[in-house]
Design goal:
Blueprint lengths: L2 E5 L2 E4 L4 E8 L6 E8 L6 E7 L4 E4 L7 E6 L4 E6 L8 E9 L14 E2 L3 E6 L1
Parallel strand pairs: 2-11
Antiparallel strand pairs: 1-3, 3-8, 4-5, 4-9, 5-6, 7-8, 9-10, 9-11
């Protein structure tokens, strides 16, 4: 059974930092596109960042570029999202997703990902 388990979320004041983790099991971790998405109430799920595990190629939404960093640990089958300089508008449920193959130009599209985690809440207050 494929499982993606997110952790590391919580509540933080604006300007603070959090690091999300996505532990993958029952799935071939290498050479896959691993994405982070978020969804706030009343909004569509949006792509935040993605990484191709075969090359460490990374992709970022403009809204988080320079503040968030996606990385991985192949030995632990884990993907991370380091979130710095957090803003209230970053408040959302964050989801980890996985899809075999490269990320390409559609990394931010929810439909391209086969597997999803259950989500982890991030709340940023001012």
């Amino acid at each position: 059974q494929v499982q993606l388990v997110e952790s590391g979320g919580g509540s933080v004041q604006a300007g603070g930092s959090l690091r999300l983790s996505c532990a993958v099991s029952g799935y071939t971790y290498r050479r896959n596109c691993m994405g982070w998405f978020r969804q706030a109430p009343g909004k569509e799920r949006e792509g935040v960042a993605a990484i191709y595990t075969g090359r460490d190629s990374t992709y970022y939404a403009d809204s988080v570029k320079g503040r968030f960093t996606i990385s991985q640990d192949n030995a632990k089958n884990t993907v991370y999202l380091q979130m710095n300089s957090l803003k209230p508008e970053d408040t959302a449920m964050y989801y980890c997703a996985a899809e075999p193959g490269g990320c390409g130009g559609n990394w931010y599209t929810t439909m391209m990902y086969r597997y999803w985690g259950q989500g982890n809440q991030v709340t940023v207050s001012s």
